[in-house]
C-alpha cells in the first residue's frame, strides 16, 4: 500500500510541477494551451490511478472480510490512505480553483490584448485612409500642375510656330526681292513652305471667313461665302497684320500666266499652293454680304517693300461688271495707287470696260486685267517682268510719278468686326 501512495504522490508532484513552474522563455498562447493539455493528461492519469488504488483497496478489504468471515470497518482498512486521498482531493480542488483563476486571468489578458490589437488596427486603418487621402490630394495637385504646364506649352507653341512660319515667309520674300535670278529656287522653297502650312493649317471644318479660324496657322481652309453656297477652298494668312486675311491674289515668281479672259477672272485660276487669283465672283460674294477691308502688299526687284490698306472694300456683281464700288480710307507705306480705279469696271482682253471710246483695250495694252479707268496707276495682273519702260509689266506707283515693276504682290481681304 505504501508503494501505491508513493505512486499517487509522484503523480501529484508531476501535476503540481506542470502547473506552477514558470515557462523557460515567455508566456504565449501556444505555450499555455500546451500546458493545459499536459495538466489535463496528468489529471486523467491521477484520476485513473486513484480509481485503480480504490479498486485495489476495495479488493483487499473484501479479501480480508472473506478470510476473517466478517466485514472490516472502513476505518480499519488503510486509515492512512483515506487521509491521503482526502488530502489529495483537497489539493486537486485547490489546484482546480487556482487553475480556474489563472484561466480567468488569461482570458482577461487575452481580451485586453485583443482590445489593444483592435485599437491598433483601427488606428492603422485611419492612418492608411489619411495617407491615401494625402496621396490623392498630392496626385490631384501634380495633375493640375501637369495640365497647367501642358496648357502653357500649347500656348507657347501656338505663339511661336506662326512666328517661325512668318519668319520663313519673310525670308523667302526677301530672297526673292534681293535676288530675282533665283526665282525658280525661291518658288520651290515657297511650295515646300506652303505644303507644310497646308498640312498644319488645313482641317475639315467650314468657317464663315478666315477671321473665324483662330488656330494662328496660315494655310488652306474652307469658308462658306453665303449661307446657301458651297464651301470654297481659300488660303488664309493668319500671321501678318493680325491674321484673318483671305488671299485672293498672289504673285512672286511669274510661273502663273495672269493674262487671262473674263471667265477665268470670274471663276479664278492658278493653285493655292503657288500663284493664283481667287475669282471675282468669290470677291463679290464676300464683300457684298459683310464689310471687308483690303490689304495690298508689293515689293520691287530691288527689295523695296510697301503696303496699302483700305478699310471698306466692295466689289459689284457680274451684272455690274464687278465694278470697284468702294475702297474706304487709305493708309500704308506704298502710294495710294488704287483710288484712281475707284468706280472702274473690271476689264479683260475679251471684255473691255476700261472707259475708252473708239480706243484700244487697256487690258490688251497693259497685258493684264484690272479695274481700268483710262487705264491705271496699278497693274498688279500685268506681265511678270523687270522692265521699267514697259507699261505691260506688273507695276505699282510708289509715289505720284514713280512707277516700279514688281517682283511680288499679294492682295487680301478681311471681314471687319464691329464691337
From TrEMBL:
Keywords: Coiled coil, Disulfide bond, Signal
Signal peptide residues on this chain, from the entry's feature table: 1-26
PROSITE patterns per UniProt: FIBRINOGEN_C_1 (PS00514), FIBRINOGEN_C_2 (PS51406)
CDD domains xref list: FReD
Keyword Metal-binding: no
Domain Fibrinogen C-terminal: 201-417
GO cellular component entries: extracellular space
Coiled-coil intervals, chain numbering: 85-134
SMART domains registered for this protein in UniProt: FBG (SM00186)
Stated name of the protein: Fibrinogen C-terminal domain-containing protein
Species of the source: Anopheles sinensis (Mosquito)
